[in-house]
Write a structure and sequence with these properties.
The structure holds two protein chains of two kinds. By secondary structure, chain A is of the alpha/beta class. Chain A has helices at 44-52, 73-78, 95-105, 114-120, 136-144, 146-149, 166-181, 205-209, and strands spanning 4-15, 18-29, 33-37, 59-64, 67-68, 80-83, 154-158, 185-189, 201-204. Chain A contains eight helices and nine strands. By secondary structure, chain B is mostly helical.
Chain lengths: 211, 239
């Protein structure tokens, strides 16, 4: 049944001579939705950046499907969808062009689904407007449309609900649960109160680091 | 049978790499086209230097003809340097660089396409504009082909080297000055052989040697620079 996708062992990270976490070990399996909790500055974003492979500023081991992640980097990237603080949307390109570029960069993404995905995030009719004419929430929706396009197994989402309206948040919550049901795994952070609270696992960095 | 499969696989892999190259190139050209100020900045700078130089130093045709190769080349070099900082900065700021680094696609190809797009927006127009500057500075007609050829071979190298500096400094808030310090020493060989080629063309000496050297530098940059740029980008984003 549940197979381990990401396994983290004895992770240690220090920033500006402040230990963010040490001896952090956990496993994220297929079918799990994990919320990383903690105060501002507790290292949530840092942890997600380390997990996604963007940051090398750590000690410890990370395994992807049982193998060290550094050895299987290409396979890992193929199965990863990362949503960062910056939505990764070019202001002078239209939503459609932004997603087309993303599809070109990620071979697992089906470029034919772009219009459908934009429709699903409520950007129907904005396909050809440059993103700088859209609101902050709409820009983040452009980036979130990737969730409907990608076949990636592991979603790492850093504050995906910022600037998203209530209805949008509810949809994305459901989307995360559906993804987990399909055998995916979601690791995310948020400061929103979630309606799906009982279905998710929590990883509290304050408790883990507050030794 | 097995061999056929691998051949087909490698063919489709080649195609996907080519598609990726075009997609990145097209995107960067489109971005430049929609933000035209970035496009014209280096060109205007290039033109300004050549216009102001005779006013500031001496309008004497003999003197200008003598210094023209150097002035045009230095102006082209500085114009390229000026445009370098923006190569990765906007991608870094809006998060698309992160997405690029998290792609399973070869970063070498992406970087090469980005640098080529940058060159098509800076080095290529500079090269095309150079004869005009040559005329303004009384460069003898024999020198024109040397000027164009040397810039055509030299400016891509400038873009490739400059991109290493841009990648290293993209994570810093004020990278502009640092880029110049990092990159200028590496520009000097290109400048020396570039201006020498023009001077040789003016005096009627054979040019093949200079072009061979500029070409060798370009070939080396073509192969090595994308590796350095990729590594530098990973470091910058990781920090």
């Amino acid at each position: 049944m549940s197979t381990s996708l990401v396994q983290v062992e004895n992770l240690f990270c220090e920033r500006d001579e402040r230990v963010l976490f040490e001896d952090l070990s956990f496993t994220a399996s297929a079918g799990e939705v994990i919320q990383v909790e903690g105060q501002n500055g507790s290292g949530k974003t840092t942890l997600l950046r380390i997990l996604s492979g963007l940051s090398n500023n750590f000690e410890g081991d990370i395994f992807w499907k049982g193998q060290p992640v550094a050895d299987v980097r290409d396979d890992f990237f193929r199965e990863l969808l990362y949503f960062g603080h910056h939505p990764g949307v070019k202001a002078v390109l239209t939503p459609e062009e932004n997603l087309q570029w993303y599809a070109a960069m990620h071979p697992g993404v089906d470029g034919g689904l772009i219009n459908g995905a934009l429709d699903k995030v409520g950007l129907c009719g904005y396909e050809d407007s440059p993103c700088h004419t859209l609101s902050a929430g709409q820009n983040r929706r452009v980036s979130l449309a990737r969730l409907y396009l990608s076949h990636a197994k592991l979603w790492i989402l850093d504050e995906p609900f910022t600037a998203i309206d209530k209805k949008g948040v509810a949809e994305k919550e459901q989307l995360m649960l559906d993804h987990a049901d399909r055998g995916g795994c979601v690791i995310f952070t948020t400061h929103h109160e979630l309606a799906i609270g009982e279905n998710i696992r929590r990883l509290n960095l304050d408790e883990l680091a507050g030794t | 049978m097995e061999q056929i499969v691998t051949k087909e696989q490698s063919k489709s892999a080649d195609e996907s790499v080519l598609n990726l190259f075009w997609a990145v190139l097209k995107r960067d050209l489109m971005l430049a086209y929609r933000k035209k100020s970035d496009l014209f900045n280096p060109l205007i700078f290039f033109l300004m230097v050549a216009t102001l130089f005779p006013l500031g130093v001496s309008p004497e045709p003999d003197f200008l003809a003598e210094v023209a190769p150097g002035v045009v080349w230095v102006a082209a070099l500085l114009a390229t340097l000026l445009s370098m900082d923006s190569l990765f900065r906007s991608d870094f700021e809006d998060g698309t660089l992160e997405q690029t680094l998290l792609s399973p696609q070869p970063l070498f190809i992406v970087v090469l396409a980005k640098v080529l797009a940058h060159w098509m927006m800076s080095g290529l127009p500079l090269t095309l504009l150079a004869p005009l500057l040559g005329v303004m500075l009384f460069l003898p007609a024999e020198g024109m082909s040397g000027l164009m050829m040397s810039l055509l071979l030299g400016t891509p190298t400038l873009s490739l080297i400059g991109a290493i500096g841009a990648a290293l400094t993209v994570g810093l808030r004020k990278g502009g000055v640092l880029i110049s310090l990092l990159v200028l020493p590496l520009y000097i060989p290109v400048l020396i052989f570039g201006t020498s080629a023009v001077q040789a063309a003016v005096t009627g000496l054979p040019l093949a040697g200079f072009f061979a050297l500029l070409g060798a530098m370009l070939a080396l940059g073509f192969v090595m620079a994308p590796l350095a740029i990729s590594a530098a980008l990973r470091i910058s984003v990781s920090g």
